[in-house]
Amino acid sequence: MQSTLFDVYICSLNEHEITQLVNQLSADEAFIPYITHAMGISGYVKFIPFLAQYLQLEDFVLSAYQALRILLGNKLDALIPLAVQFNSDIDERKIDLRYYGAKILYAWQQGMSFLGLTFDHDHDHDYDNNDKRILNGTVLTAQSVEEILLSGSQWHRRVAMLYKLQWCGKPFIQHPNALDIG
To answer: What does pTM read for this prediction?
Structure first.
């Protein structure tokens, strides 16, 4: 589960399939870091409140934070101060990040419109797939993937490349001068 192949698999799943996978993995607490990772790279906005809850749990703070960062990108800065996010003392950062899980849950309940994101919480509404997925704080589309590949963070570029692979069907050959985050 700690492989690029797993990440490619996650990106290929539809909402129902990723939900089933998350539910199956939830049977064992040892899989929670993989669950949060899958939630983040899946791009499905419905996982934001779950990630916010995991952010409040001491053992899963960093994995939940990373997943939220993948989904929300710089929009997360409006919810969590940069001084907290980039505190060099990891123990302090983990303690401080836990507080912001509740703030993210509250923002979710308010629709997150102050971030420029609006999510309709009407579960009976039939969404278009692109409206359900985000990456780096923007709706996941072919155009947004191209923009992220040009100007996103290293983590966001990696996830964008996974989606480009899914949509184009061409194997990705990493450029020898590219940074590797593995």
So the answer is: 0.84
